[in-house]
Amino acid sequence: MVFNHPIGVRIPVGPPIIIMYKIAIIEGIHQDGIKLLKNNSNYKYEIIEDTSEKNLINKLPDFDACTLKISKLSSKVLTHCKKLKAISRHGVGYDNVDLKYLKENNISLLITATANAVSVAEHVLAMILSITKSVNKYDNEVRLGNFKSNSDQIITCELYNKEIMIAGFGRIGKALIKRCKSFEMKVNIYDPYVDEKTIKSFGGNKIDSFEEGLKTSDFLSLHMPLTTETKNLINYSRLKIMKKNAVIINTARGGIINEVELDKALNEGLIFGAGLDVFEKEPIEKTNPLLKNTRVILSPHSATFTNECTSRMGIETIKNIIDFFDKKIDKSMIIKL
Ligand SMILES: NC(=O)c1ccc[n+]([C@@H]2O[C@H](COP(=O)([O-])OP(=O)(O)OC[C@H]3O[C@@H](n4cnc5c(N)ncnc54)[C@H](O)[C@@H]3O)[C@@H](O)[C@H]2O)c1
Does the annotation mark 53 as catalytic? Predict the structure, then answer.
């Protein structure tokens, strides 16, 4: 039905057309995110817990959008998903999605760009402090009854005045520098894609040569994506030029460090220690030599598992889908394919 307006504009009347979108929540998500869909009559959702390729091929074709944690969305799965318009990553990395397929089929990729930087930056500092203060070793000695006797064999140090190189100066690198500055550390930034002015405005010192940075750093924290350029960036020959007291932290992606060569370098005392949240193969394989190396501390890709961050990520993952269909999504949440 059409109502003829006196000035000539034809205005359609009648009930508004409601478009119902179906959202697949792969692996589940924080309840705070689910609540956004529960209260919205434009959306139906289903949680898909069985993430086997077979089940995804069976289930996903029915959905307009999906959320995604660590499961793999290969072209083999995606080719069955003819209705799919958007994938909303619960996180910022997206090496588990076939980007070529998304581009060719006009499927948008959304990320939770603002939700996790603080938790990851705090995780880096937790690892640095745990290693430099020998938290685990002291705890163990006290429990064994060695209240003072072994203290002189445990090496600890301050962060004050020490040099850290932050490699990759995006959201997490920027959250980390603020925290390092509060410990009065000297911060060098290696990121060929960020200009000196931006780095200076955060109180950092831009360095152009990664190798030169390695030679003087007491700490190295990695915050870049895994690409063909960054794969095996930390290998034996680079570990060899580092200081013997150096500590490396990787909360970015497994594969940026060559794990076998790191294990060798730690055993030979080329560097002091390492803290790893991410691994080449996840879950970490039982045969990985780093599991037996006491110079390394490990966490199960859990840097974002804080209460605050999981809630924020759940909300942002779903809000991105709603904003996408409402055509008001923030550009920083969409990956340019
Ligand atoms: N452990 C976790 O749970 C967790 C959580 C969030 C993010 N991450 C990972 O942390 C990393 C950083 O995340 P972010 O949100 O800060 O990303 P971001 O995109 O905001 O920043 C990445 C930065 O890396 C820089 N970069 C790219 N290639 C580089 C190279 N070859 N050398 C140096 N710098 C380079 C880019 O210029 C950019 O500034 C990513 O790998 C992401 O997947 C891990």
Answer: no
The CATH number given to 12-115+308-333 is: 3.40.50.720
Q: Give pLDDT, residue 7.
A: 54
Task: Quick: pLDDT tens for 299-310.
Answer: 999 999 999 999
Question: Which ligand 1 atom lies nearest to the CA of residue 229?
Answer: 31
> Which H or E element spans position 275?
strand 273-276
Q: Known catalytic residue: 253? A: yes
Location of structure tokens 């959905």? 63
Task: Decide whether 12-115+308-333 matches 117-298 in CATH topology.
Answer: yes
Q: Which amino acid is at 164?
A: I
In CATH, what number does 117-298 get? 3.40.50.720
pLDDT in tens, 1-26: 555 555 555 555 676 677 899 999 99
Atom number of ligand 1 nearest to Cα 95: 43
Q: Which sequence spans correspond to the domains of the chain?
A: 12-115+308-333, 117-298
Query: What residues are paired with 297 via a beta bridge?
Result: 275
- pLDDT attached to residue 106: 97
Q: Kindly report the pTM of this predicted structure.
A: 0.90
Distance CA 27, CA 119 (A): 21
User: Nearest to residue 226, comparing CAs of 187, 281, 269?
Assistant: 281
Q: How much is the average pLDDT of 222-243?
A: 97
* Helix-strand-coil split of the chain, %, nearest 5: 35, 20, 45
Q: Mean pLDDT for the chain?
A: 94
Distance, in Å, from the CA atom of 100 to the CA atom of 335, rounded to the nearest integer, reads 13
**Cα-to-centroid distance, 172 and ligand 1 (Å):** 7
Tell me, using a 6 A CB cutoff, whether residue 279 lines ligand 1.
no
pLDDT value of position 5: 55
DSSP state of 230: T
User: Is residue 175 a contact partner of residue 254, using CB atoms and an 8 Å limit?
Assistant: no
